[in-house]
Amino acid sequence: MSALKIKKGATSHSAYNLRPNYSDTIEQHTLAVLVENEPGVLARVIGLFSGRGYNIDSLTVAEVDHLGHRSRITIVTSGTPQIIEQIKAQLGRIVDVHKVNDLTVEGPSVERELALFKVSGKGENRIEAVRLADIFRANVVDSTLESFIFEITGTPEKIDAFAELMQPLGLQEIARTGVAALSRGAV
Amino acid sequence: MTKAMTGAKMVVQALIDQGVEVVFGYPGGAVLPIYDEIFQQNSITHVLVRHEQGAVHAAEGYARSTGKPGVALVTSGPGATNAVTGLTDALLDSIPLIVLTGQVPTFMIGSDAFQEADTVGITRPCTKHNWLVKETDKLAATLHEAFHVATSGRPGPVLIDIPKDVQFATGTYTQAKQVETHYNPQVKGDLDAITELAKAMETAKRPVFYTGGGVINSGPAASQLLRELVAATGFPITSTLMGLGAYPASGDSWIGMLGMHGLYEANMAMHDCDLMINIGARFDDRITGRLDAFSPNSKKAHIDIDASSINKVIHVDIPILGDVAHVLEDLLNVWKARGRKTNKEGLSKWWNQINEWRNVKCLDFKQDGKIIKPQYALQRLEELTKKHDRYITTEVGQHQMWAAQYLRFEDPNRWMTSGGLGTMGYGFPASIGVQMAHPDALVINVAGEASWLMNMQELGTAMQYKLPVKQFILNNERLGMVRQWQELLHGERYSSSWSESLPDFVKLAEAFGAKGIQCHDPDALDDAIMEMITYDGPVLFDCLVEKHENCFPMIPSGKAHNEMLLGDDSTEGAIQGAGEALV
Ligand SMILES: Cc1cc2nc3c(=O)[nH]c(=O)nc-3n(C[C@H](O)[C@H](O)[C@H](O)COP(=O)(O)OP(=O)(O)OC[C@H]3O[C@@H](n4cnc5c(N)ncnc54)[C@H](O)[C@@H]3O)c2cc1C
Ligand SMILES: Cc1ncc(C[n+]2csc(CCOP(=O)(O)OP(=O)(O)O)c2C)c(N)n1
């Protein structure tokens, strides 16, 4: 018996990089995941992302319904459209997950993040920092003669922009909460 | 009715209420209260295995051969870590299991106590779900919920970790029917999608059913409906390794297993079809081969209960989320109501083409000379056992593939094999689990000598419980599948793929009080097999076979279905380039 149609050493392909022709543009999506507030549920979600090699750009979690025992995890993730679909399906099959919403595709949504910035400096820099903070509607929540802590809320882009401006003015430390998001309009 | 009882008693009570008859386990300090309760009742039989891995595989064999969940009970720390391979195996093959582990008392958790391990942490990625129960009052409800989760939707293993103080303390027993659950996966498929599939079936010229383990998971009704659908349409049907038996091998439309070591006709049909109907299979890489060359010209439908299986590797045109039996029932109704149409002319041409492929006779081999060919051994085993009430388990390797190719399965739940994880050491304990469920059946584990040695300690279990499991070892004195890959891929450099220093299997059997048979002569094989079948007790059958036989057909990694290797004479350079990196 002999092999049929086999071209010897013909392929230079690997099955792993031969996904069919989905769009391979990387998209960023914000997912709202309503979960049972059980011990280990966050570990399950994070373990899913690390175990299957998905990206986490931002993650926040807190109880949102004490009586109903529910927490909301907001995850910003990125990947090809096919990977995003997989992530949603994989999240959906976790037993403790009640609901997965893709805020990026399910109509308009509001995204906000809170950040604290520690900036130290004297003279001109100090004045410039306060001036910029004012433009960005950041509040001063702590101050010494040589430093400020600014509190700022906004989209992640706004916070990134603020960080860039603070950098040359003596930025010491940033603490960011990660994104919280809700779809716009009535439920 | 609620009742007060200790946690340990709740465990036993919940198992009884859930209809459990057999528990496979191994005791230790952290589960002693539960063992004490087991001692004081007669409803549940406990099978003492010789290694916790064996307990979990035995529970898998029990589950797969009955359709009921399997139950295992092990102690904390090393007991739990020994169960990890079995849990992972069950997760990949969608086998419903309830594994109970003991844990150090709640007030010692986190203190590196004796035999403490973070069991829920370790097993989180290898269970469908797991729980650490810290209050006795919640224990019964959790146990009932565990059975529900393990058996609903896509089945899988679950684990409950029970600290010792929770076992000792008294609490209120919750009845199963009082337990509320939010976990209720969708079983009915979308009717529009089902209608779309029915329409596609009416016009398809080259349709093929590609069925998988999901049909077995769905239960006997699913296999029945599948048979009806295939008979009514006359479409050819192939199956994955995991789905064998859902449609009978003797059925008119059966074209054999597909995939890496599947039949030529099945793979060619998959490659050339114009309508592929995937029923409960997951486009595994053993099936698809090179993805960009996978069935390039077909419309694809996929029936699966797990949304994450759909569009995971292969994009499908008609996704149907639901349980196989439910969807097939609706599909049959819709297709019948629309007039039971198929493209008769197209189909008849398609069958002519398939019959041409069949004529290649890809499983032919020559048994000549004085050395038993493994294929021949299985052919004789099939011939001599097919009329029996027979269950087959396997280990992992070439023998497993030959068993899939040369044994024929007429019914579901008769074939237990480790497909997804490919766990050497699975088959022997699994055969013990199967025999516990079917005491009068003929249970045979088709094994390789290397795999069999991985859980050989279970011979003690088989003896203790008088389980007449037949261990049919195709002994090639090689890690055969590894050796085959080294031959094809690594210039015949057989690095560590010799099974050296093998025991005398006959003496080994005798040391346990079992029967050992050795056979090396093709002419003596039938008598030896008959001796194995008729012996009332466990048998270790050492079948000495051709050492360097390769398993064909084979689609080399990274190749397309129509680039299949059929025999030894054309394998040089078969796997080159990036295909080498694949497993
Ligand atoms: C050495 C070796 C070689 C192998 N070679 C081959 C080979 O040549 N051919 C081959 O086929 N396999 C082979 N395998 C096995 C392979 O690795 C996979 O395990 C197997 O192909 C998967 O089978 P499946 O697609 O039927 O999926 P399974 O793993 O059985 O998964 C079942 C699918 O059905 C779904 N499902 C479950 N329950 C239901 C339900 N009630 N309703 C609807 N859907 C449901 C699940 O969500 C899942 O998607 C080999 C394994 C080994 C170890
Ligand atoms: C636990 C485990 N370790 C390693 C492997 C890799 N492996 C796959 S097949 C095989 C050889 C099996 O040899 P044997 O049981 O003698 O069967 P044969 O292939 O010779 O029929 C090995 C080592 C595996 N599948 N499982």
Automatic annotation (TrEMBL), chain A:
Pathway: Amino-acid biosynthesis; L-valine biosynthesis; L-valine from pyruvate: step 1/4; Amino-acid biosynthesis; L-isoleucine biosynthesis; L-isoleucine from 2-oxobutanoate: step 1/4. PROSITE patterns: ACT (PS51671). One of its GO terms (molecular function) is acetolactate synthase regulator activity. Residues 30-105 form the ACT domain. Keywords: Amino-acid biosynthesis, Branched-chain amino acid biosynthesis, Transferase. Its EC number is 2.2.1.6. It comes from the Bacteria. This is Acetolactate synthase small subunit. It comes from Yoonia maritima.
From TrEMBL, chain B:
Binds 1 Mg(2+) ion per subunit. Binds 1 thiamine pyrophosphate per subunit. Its EC number is 2.2.1.6. It comes from the Bacteria. Residues 194-331 form the Thiamine pyrophosphate enzyme central domain. GO terms for biological process: isoleucine biosynthetic process; L-valine biosynthetic process. Keywords: Amino-acid biosynthesis, Branched-chain amino acid biosynthesis, Magnesium, Metal-binding, Thiamine pyrophosphate, Transferase. One of its GO terms (molecular function) is flavin adenine dinucleotide binding. GO terms for cellular component: acetolactate synthase complex. It catalyses: 2 pyruvate + H(+) = (2S)-2-acetolactate + CO2. SUPFAM superfamilies: DHS-like NAD/FAD-binding domain, Thiamin diphosphate-binding fold (THDP-binding). Coiled coil: none annotated. Residues 396-543 form the Thiamine pyrophosphate enzyme TPP-binding domain. Its cofactor is Mg(2+); thiamine diphosphate. Residues 5-120 form the Thiamine pyrophosphate enzyme N-terminal TPP-binding domain. InterPro entries: Acetolactate_synth_lsu, AHAS_TPP, DHS-like_NAD/FAD-binding_dom, THDP-binding, Thiamin_PyroP_enz_cen_dom, Thiamin_PyroP_enz_TPP-bd_dom, TPP_enz, TPP_enzyme_TPP-bd. Pathway: Amino-acid biosynthesis; L-isoleucine biosynthesis; L-isoleucine from 2-oxobutanoate: step 1/4; Amino-acid biosynthesis; L-valine biosynthesis; L-valine from pyruvate: step 1/4. The keyword Transferase applies. Belongs to the TPP enzyme family. This is Acetolactate synthase. It comes from Yoonia maritima. The lineage of its organism: Bacteria, Pseudomonadati, Pseudomonadota, Alphaproteobacteria, Rhodobacterales.
